[in-house]
Amino acid sequence: MTDPAVLAYIPSPSQGVWYLGGFPLRAYALCIIVGIVVAVWWGSKRWQARGGRNGEVLDIAIWAVPFGLVGGRLYHLATDWRTYFGDGPKTPIDAFKIWDGGLGIWGAVLFGALGAWIGARRAGISLPAMGDAIGPPILLAQAIGRLGNYFNQELYGAHTTLPWGLEIYERVDRNGNVGPGLIDGTSTGTVVDVVQPTFLYELIWNVLVVIALVVIDRRFRIGHGRLFALYVAGYCAGRFFIELLREDQATHIFGIRINVFTAVIVFCCAIAYVILARKGRESPAEIYRDGAGPESTPVTDASADPAAPDSKGADSKGADSKAADSTVTEPDEIDSGATEPVDTDPAETPGSDAAPEPDEPGADSTDSDDTSGTRTPS
Fold first, then answer.
1. In Å, what is the CA distance from 187 to each residue of 15, 16, 167, 173, 191?
2. Residue 38 domain-assigned?
3. pTM of this structure
């Protein structure tokens, strides 16, 4: 009779590499690329919601991603150097074969942050504000990337009898080599072991932390890099316990995996930052350095601001008033050729066209300010 628990075991993929006309299509690389695309897309949405401009997350990613890949590889080589430079199964030249797996997230985040700092500085962007926007998307990208470990049959835990154990298959490559760790190999169908699916534990943990970060961000309006620090702390907390379950080859210090120490140290630093950093969230103007943010367009035309006074109309009124004033001639300006004012009584001069003084009875009173007939309606 078949053990019911065996029916619940998670099977590993039969292979992690497919060849299209001789070109290797690697699941590990595809998962990383998909994670980066998702992180850039979602990160851009979050950045714009904080007041940033479209396209700036991609500009930062152009710097952060290459730095992150180099940093991740360097951390992997530094902590597992015996695999490549000691008595391990690989040679020093294999250190450059990043497609064979082997990226340390600690180095990826550290060097990725360095690349992001360079890109943010060039663009005049506040790096802590950018970190808060892209923190959850980065962690989601990490969750997607863990699927690559699943296809490669790597980074799993110790033997288990749990119903959700992961079946590890024997694989054979094109050269006839046989073993479960052959990334380029194809499954023979033979189960080598049933192990703890630590990749799955980390994937699920990452997604849960992403959800928690989004909820915290919306409820408490976290800013000034504190949300990014919470992402780092949350990841480290889960990684600490997952590392204790893993059985893959790694460097040990005092009999403990080096990544356990790294998780503890980074966790403490992240929590310290959350406590000491400035509270609240930046305003849209604060996410840029002075002079680097979107400039507000000054209102130069009254039509651009409905609430502004009709400056054009006001000018035309003033011009019309001046025109009206110029048509009113004072009595002593009639004879423009006279060198001296002529004291002449208009009533005693037959045919005189001089206008009577406004204060005389019967005069046609003309107020120079009354130009309602020539004003532009406001």
1. 6, 10, 11, 9, 9
2. yes
3. 0.73
Cβ(188)–Cβ(171) below 8 Å: yes
CB 98 within 8 A of CB 71: no
Nearest residue to 173 (alpha-carbon basis) of 30, 15, 12? 15
Domain of residue 132, residue span: 4-278
Span 293-319, average pLDDT: 43
Number of domains the chain is built from: 1
Q: What is the pLDDT of residues 318-332, one digit of tens each?
A: 444 444 444 444 444
Is residue 358 domain-resident? no
Beta-carbon count within 10 A of 111 CB:
21
Q: Does residue 251 form part of some domain?
A: yes
Residues 6 or more apart whose CB falls under 8 angstroms from that of 332 comprise 341, 342
Amino acid identity, residue 184? D
The reply to whether 293 falls in a domain is no
- Residue 347's alpha-carbon distances to 18, 53, 350, 351, 355, in angstroms, are 115, 78, 7, 9, 10
